[in-house]
Amino acid sequence: MLYDFPPADASVGDSLVTPRGPARWGADSEYGRLTDVMLAAPRHLELVPCNAVSIENHRNGIVCSPDLAAEQHRKLVAALEAEGVRCHLVPPVEGLADLSFTRDSTMISPWGLIALSPAVEHRLAEVAHIREAVAGWDVPLVGGVEEGRVEGGDVCLRRPGLVAIGYSGERTDETGALSLARTFEERGWRSILTRFDKRFLHLDTIFTLAGPNLAIACTDALDELFLLEMQELGIEIIDVTVAEVQKLSANLLSLGDRRVMSPAENHRVNALLERRGYKVVRVAIDQFTRCGGGVHCLTMPLARLPG
Q: What ranges make up the beta strands (E) of 116-154?
């Protein structure tokens, strides 16, 4: 294992080991073999009512347990390492309640890390904190989004040379989506922008890739033109319902090589993936899904083999 975890009564991330970097940082797809990933221990996790799932849970008196979340996070890290993924932990910081959802404040590109621009005020400080951490790991920094708001859950590296960016106007707005698209287009990539209803928080709650030609998606929540483009690109879709979206059933992480990490309770989707020959790595993450984030939200790739 890359990390020696502290005792059970301590928080993962208190004793941080400097990661051993790969020969190449970056990713050009959502499905190339995942070799390195960035996570953050949930030492200060709280259920912040800032999305449809967490608002509803807060209204119903549901909370999350930092102790249970820490145990689930340790097992998530162990499951990733068992699949050959090096896990790099950003130190927790008091006041950054959603830092564990590392997908949103920065993103990896084929050229290095891009600083994004979260729309929720309590997440803005995550950007500088993460940039400082990865600078110590020798991850190249590409720059940042200068206009509008963009969060990483709205970005999908569909395949080498093609990025899809979703926006609802709430967490990612059109100005931010266009600004990020230019970063890719200036380097020869094509971009697809798609709008969706703000109740779904991020694109990755209604569309994620299990492999180069298979997506888990809620077709009822996606724009018809976006779905048509995915069809023309040869994407098969495992359809999920709006009710399943609320349970983060479409928020999955591709590990590459026909392997997918998914919530343990995601029984129907997991079975459908296995019927298609995928290995499903099941993890218990209910302390995080009640906050509105799933496996994809908790993991920010730092390096994938070329897609």
A: 141-144
